[in-house]
Amino acid sequence: MTTGVTERLYYTNTRLAIADAQVMEDAHDGGDRYVVLDRTIFHPQGGGQPSDVGEIRTADHTFTVVRLTETSRDGVIRHFITTQTPDAAASLVGRAITMEINLEARLTFARLHTAGHLLANIVEEECPGLVGRRGHHFTGGQAFVLFDGVLPAKESLTALKTTLETRLAALIAENRPIATHADGARTVGIEGLKAYPCGGTHLEHTGEIGAVTVRSVKIEKGKELKIGYDVR
Ligand SMILES: [Zn+2]
To answer: CB-hemisphere CA count at 13 Å for 141?
Structure first.
C-alpha cells in the first residue's frame, strides 16, 4: 500500500488524546517495527519538542509507541512500536486502530514549548539585536532558548533575568489568546506579539502555561545568549 502525507490531528487540537486511524504501512527499519497511519495524534520529536508517548490498539493487541520519526521529504510519520504479545506479528496494514497519547505528558511539553515562544518574543523585544535561534523544550530542568546577534553586556544579565520573569508573569496573567494558522506554512502567534513559523503543539491561552521561572541567563561560547527556564 502506498503512503501519503500523515494528517496531523495535533495541528488543530492539542488536547485530543484518543482517536482512530487506519494503518497504511507496517514495516521494519533495521530490526525495529514501525507503522505509518493515515492520521496521527502523535507529535514526533522536532522543533525543540520531544515525541509524545502512548500506545496503539487493535481489537486484539496493544502496542507501545516507543519512538517517532518524521521524514521531512514526504511528510510521513513513522510510529515505532513494540508489544509483549507473542502473536502480534501479523501485518496491520489496512486495519483500524485506536491511538492514545499520555495527555499529561503532552500538556507538559506544550506548556514548556509555548513558554519558549513567549520567552523568545520578550527577549527579542528587550534586546532588539538578538534573534531566537533554537529551543529545547524537554522536561527535567533542561528547557532553554538560545539567541544570537548583538549580545547584551554581562553586567546587565541579572537585571535582564528579573525583567524576563516580570514580563512572563504579566503576559501569563493577561491570559492572551494563542492562534495557530496553517494557510501555507504553519505559524503560531500570541496576541500582540510576533508570530513564528512552527509545527509544534501549543496551548490556547498564555494562562495555561502556569508559572515560569527563569533558571539562568548566560552568555555561552562568547556568542550566544542562553536562557534556561522551567514551568511549574
Ligand atoms: Zn511552537
So the answer is: 2
Q: How far is the CA of 205 from the centre of ligand 1 (A)?
A: 13
User: Which residues on adjacent β-strands are paired with residue 190?
Assistant: 178
What number of other Cβ atoms are within 10 A of residue 63's Cβ? Answer: 23
Backbone phi and psi for residue 173, each to the nearest 5 degrees, phi listed first:
-65, -30
Distance 64 CA to ligand 1 centre (A): 26
Measured between alpha carbons, how far is 122 from 106 in angstroms, rounded to an integer?
Answer: 24
Kindly report, residue by residue over 183-195, the tens digit of the pLDDT: 778 899 999 999 9
Query: Residue 20: left (phi > 0), alpha (psi -120 to 50), or beta?
Result: beta
What is the Å distance from ligand 1's center to 180 Cα?
9
- Give yes or no for a contact between 19 and 99, defined as CB atoms under 8 angstroms apart: yes
Give 228 Cα–ligand 1 centroid separation in angstroms: 17
Tell me the C-alpha distance between 201 and 180, whole Å: 10
Ligand 1 centroid from CA 200, angstroms: 4
- 25, 129: one domain: no
CATH number at residue 83: 2.40.30.130
Give residues whose Cβ lies within 5 Å of ion ligand 1.
188, 198, 200
Task: State which residues of the chain have pLDDT below 50.
Answer: 1-2
CB 117 within 8 A of CB 188: yes
101, 41 in Cβ contact below 8 A? yes
pLDDT at 3: 56
CATH code of the domain covering residue 186: 3.30.980.10
